[in-house]
Amino acid sequence: MSHPHPDLAPPPPLAEGGLRVVALGGLGEIGRNMTVFEHDGRLLVVDCGVLFPETEQPGVDLILPDFEYIRGRLDAIDALILTHGHEDHIGAVPYLLRERPDIPVVGSRLTLALLQAKLAEHRIKTVPVEVAEGDRRSFGPFDCEFLAVNHSIPDALAVAVRTAAGLVLHTGDFKMDQLPLDGRLTDLPGFARLGAEGIDLLMSDSTNAEVPGFVTSERNIGPVIDDVFRTAQERIIVACFASHVHRVQQVLDAAVANGRKVCFIGRSMVRNMGVARELGYLTVPDEIMVEQKEIDNVPPDRLVLVCTGSQGEPMSALSRMANRDHQIRVTERDTVVLASSLIPGNEESVNRVINGLTRWGARVVHKGNALVHVSGHSSAGELLYVLNVTKPSNFMPIHGEWRHLRAHAKLASLTGVPDENIVIAEDGVVVDLVDGKARIVGAVPAGYVYVDGLSVGEVTETSLKDRRILGEEGFVSIVVAVDSTSGKLLAGPEIHARGAGIVDEDFDEVLDRIEAVLRDAAADGVNDSHQLSQLIRRTVGKWVNETYRRRPMIVPVVVEV
Amino acid sequence: MSHPHPDLAPPPPLAEGGLRVVALGGLGEIGRNMTVFEHDGRLLVVDCGVLFPETEQPGVDLILPDFEYIRGRLDAIDALILTHGHEDHIGAVPYLLRERPDIPVVGSRLTLALLQAKLAEHRIKTVPVEVAEGDRRSFGPFDCEFLAVNHSIPDALAVAVRTAAGLVLHTGDFKMDQLPLDGRLTDLPGFARLGAEGIDLLMSDSTNAEVPGFVTSERNIGPVIDDVFRTAQERIIVACFASHVHRVQQVLDAAVANGRKVCFIGRSMVRNMGVARELGYLTVPDEIMVEQKEIDNVPPDRLVLVCTGSQGEPMSALSRMANRDHQIRVTERDTVVLASSLIPGNEESVNRVINGLTRWGARVVHKGNALVHVSGHSSAGELLYVLNVTKPSNFMPIHGEWRHLRAHAKLASLTGVPDENIVIAEDGVVVDLVDGKARIVGAVPAGYVYVDGLSVGEVTETSLKDRRILGEEGFVSIVVAVDSTSGKLLAGPEIHARGAGIVDEDFDEVLDRIEAVLRDAAADGVNDSHQLSQLIRRTVGKWVNETYRRRPMIVPVVVEV
Q1: Per-residue pLDDT tens for B531-558?
Q2: Can you list the domains of chain A with their CATH numbers?
């Protein structure tokens, strides 16, 4: 198995007739999936998603792929193919379309509908190309065939890309529920047919490659939800992802069976379920739906609220209910169901929500105590089926952190893919498929681009480093006004400390020290504000460290008057 | 079941002959365990531990119980009993002893030895009273009997406290390994004997009350570790808690069996294992130990490193190895074993370590893929045994978050403890045992006391709120010097922004706005620096929000010259 050297050089030009594959996201992380294929001078992009920040990226709203690699060649893009409608696959599309609005965007009916709703908020119009499983369409030199895959959102697709360089199968995200609720199976026969034709490169979803066995059918959640409904005392509050149409369908079915009304709460839930219902992916009997403003008219034991917030997002309705900071006051007669996964990184906040709800006595049902969630991604058992059926010449695990990519690579090796044909790449690593062999040939920049408020890319690693220091230690700012010629102190020093845990009474000592330092400096004829700042920074930093053993950010300001 | 009203009043005086129980920590959280018993005007304290901060408490080193409730009555403390040597039970002892050094500290041999090592670092001398299982000792009006319990550290004790008010059994932390490595079983016959005598109040460890079934024996880890040792290519690096003597013993045994040398790495690991070895709790053949400076002389396939860092602590050796920021450079021939639990809140950092090590190709063995950890706390199955054997009149779940306390309360109810005699309290809630009935009678303050660097309690909730804002959004400081009489601008405005993601080129616009605002103010005769600060704050805050949709901390500084 080949894997990237930490210091790969920029790649050489792509060999004539070869196919270049560069993931700008999704390799080494779960999220911001984006793969750029290049052949014969043209580009095909598969997915364009966002990554949600961890605590290491404080204050950031979203993380985008870095488009720099393709920025000079946007006109060479023949299509942007979206495998499905999750944020980590479509969330960055508005940002790419800002740079070239007329990129043809290709996807299934639901995927495009969810994208349109998002683009409307960004006031962007697009050129949608609707495809369905079984379709085969060419975009420039890329001959694309679409295959049905089963996932935690309807209408997901895998894409097979044929070029002169060979046949690539990109699975997108998928699992292989053998009894899917909508009857739409992952197209294993299609995968087998491509395998028989000869797959030169398989790129397959690694998210659950470490998990042994098989994912339980989504269908098995139904009876559990039904049981919760039958035994609930009064209100039922179900939190799940706003795109999980099948999960919501099962909740609606249980509501119908148990004579309860349903109210969708939260902008994204209302929007997405509206789209899904309109397109026929969600079956909602009119008579069971109520608007949020009407819920007080429904007896608590006849009511179901379906909301987001299953990841403990602090501003979500569910978090606010847990903190008694919401008009809906949770009591010991309420049942709350967290019908979703626990995305790594959200454990603390979800735990806080569970404890908050439990404190008020609510019964909390979650994946830790009941089968109210199954994963949307194939476990190792299913991945082995795909590897065995497709028999790829080369294999590249995608969509996963290092641990998942390595685990998937091992599965490929076990099924007989030669180790030298297994390519473990990370974001930005350039893989060329030439003469039927996939090899790492270099790397291009693929750093994080941060969205924070309205700005894209203006919050940098330096800003985040500052935030981490400020967030851990606070700051101490010292302001003095000095005479610009003599350097003599005219006013101050004034100290402003925030988050540093330093009490005002302690300041006197350091103020004396600063004054002494400035007196000496003036006596020595030092009047340069930069030099004076440095003197102040050193004095205060030393004092804080001696006194408190802490290292807040020291911000000296010397105003020359 | 009775549980605290959010706004409980201060408690009435304790009834004659009654026993008052107040947890200053450990109820509603996992950590800083501390219970204060009061009878006949005297106090008995059980445990005095620390809580480790979550992301909600940025920059904080430790969280202590608030001693305010007992501060005025320290002389009334007849003893401080320590159930075992974990940080969440002994970590706050130095801070309590600072306030009264001659409190008699009671504990088992290993517990006191681990405490002494800690106190030596704080330069505190104590009055230790060594006890062992089977001992019965009176401290003031508190007649205390000690019973053996099995836990993830040797020499743990439960304590039965007899007063005129009745018999209380406090389990400490425990599990019921029926084949413990040291043969020291949790004293179920002792519990049964107390049950026959009549337990008026059972206080029992709730940490794993939500987990069904029974904890696997520690003994079952041995073969798994042995298998890892037999199949490891070269170096083996084992990370575990620095107090888990039995776990380390199993690693040492595997090292002996597989002809490997062992090196302890990290201050706490070296110190604690030294103590455990000296007292005979750890058996270490001299010939297998090597010092860290000698490890380069040992062939990699003959070497085992035992270190801390299993929770992904950023400065630990293991984290630095994962980042290639340590002299030990992990390669694809190394095996790393995380032989420990994953403490809630540490998932992100542990995942980062696993991914880092995996990136360099190391084989990483952890509780997710092998039986290299078992919990130290009883699961529901074991807790039921204790409830059934002790048959308490009153029950109070301790050591747990709300979800754990409620789950444990439910188990008690299922075993027949009347609901009205099950008391779910949180920190500071006052429970009185009077006439054989335990009831909530009020509450006392029991907030978090933060240790940050050298200061205790100086970092407040306000500091933390500031840190959270600064950590998410950074700050923008605007400094002006004005004439103290006319309010006219003499110098500035100068802008200093850190962590706000605002680029210098954007400043011009807001500087113009500030100047205009100050001009208008001067024209209106406004010269009060507080008023000018408010004007600047509003101007800049509005600009940042309009321009960036962000809310950094705005820090206006008006220097009057």
Answers
A1: 888 888 998 899 989 888 889 999 998 8
A2: 19-213+375-443 (3.60.15.10), 218-366 (3.40.50.10710), 461-560 (3.10.20.580)
